[in-house]
């Protein structure tokens, strides 16, 4: 039995129409890859298969400072408890060797340490010696020279433990990255035309009134590259210069500043257009360093921008204004941007064809003028409507019962 033919011809059926519709090129989304520097500045790097673990013990102080707070507090508590218990065992052995634990010497005659009759009393005496409390109930005598040596050793050991642990706590509370929490970066970076050149820009600021002395900003592009010999470099770091690069490259970070990088021939962004930038896997790392004015400690704040966080054709809005003789900074607009006329081509193409930039700016100027004309025409039409409505308002006469005429304009 033959299949029944459709009434509608095959070329006008839905599959045929779909096949003839011209398809637009589809750009696949870039696979989300791990970034090297997080937005908060932490390094996204895991160390595995470290065989020489003993190297960390060679620098015990730095290892203790790098530990998390819960481990540091545990080490702080255990160091004091361990030293007290260790010397308590020593005092108990001294008393046991001298026979002070016998009931015959309960009155404290010829004892090495008066009042040490058990391990508990030896532990309490160890605490009194190390923290210099001295309640007066237990004291050392001149009967045992060895007890005097133990007293000297415990004092020295107690001073060492206090110096290390208190220094560790102080360094953890005064770490440089705590000051970096008030150094902020804009959420997005922008690429726009400045001084007739295509520029990559970010905004940095300091929330505290105490300044960062000798602040410097470094920009690096990190991406995976392959050499002509076939060697794969997973983390290829390329330094890029800022517009205000000087011999010292220091900034006066009094108010939020816009850091600008001119995309020139030496820039790794020179051959990237707006479309190619979105498809690339590069990451731009920003490092801000300086000396804290109040403590003199060097601090460092870091962040990074991937291709999705770079806005092409945008510019940061101004946030510093002068109000009654005082400069005011509105941090609510710190990361706000506005669209500006920017060519979508790369900086390389702009250098070869400068007319692209001129045409883009002319189109922007024309569109701006047209928008102004539309606004003015709308304002004029609205004002004319109001005037005509006021002129054409009729006058209504009201007659009172007495016959008087009261005229009211409505």
UniProtKB/TrEMBL annotation:
Keywords: Ion channel, Ion transport, Membrane, Phosphoprotein, Potassium, Potassium transport, Transmembrane, Transmembrane helix, Transport, Voltage-gated channel. It comes from the Eukaryota. InterPro entries: Ig_E-set (IPR014756), IRK_C (IPR041647), K_chnl_inward-rec_Kir (IPR016449), K_chnl_inward-rec_Kir6.1 (IPR003278), K_chnl_inward-rec_Kir_cyto (IPR013518), Kir_TM (IPR040445). The keyword Glycoprotein does not apply. GO terms for biological process: nervous system development; potassium ion import across plasma membrane; regulation of monoatomic ion transmembrane transport. It catalyses: K(+)(in) = K(+)(out). The chain crosses the membrane at residues 71-94, 146-170. Residues 367-386 are annotated as: Disordered. The record marks 162 as: Role in the control of polyamine-mediated channel gating and in the blocking by intracellular magnesium. One of its GO terms (molecular function) is ATP-activated inward rectifier potassium channel activity. Residues 183-353 form the Inward rectifier potassium channel C-terminal domain. Coiled coil: none annotated. This is Potassium inwardly rectifying channel subfamily J member 8. It comes from Scleropages formosus (Asian bonytongue). The lineage of its organism: Eukaryota, Metazoa, Chordata, Craniata, Vertebrata. The gene is kcnj8.
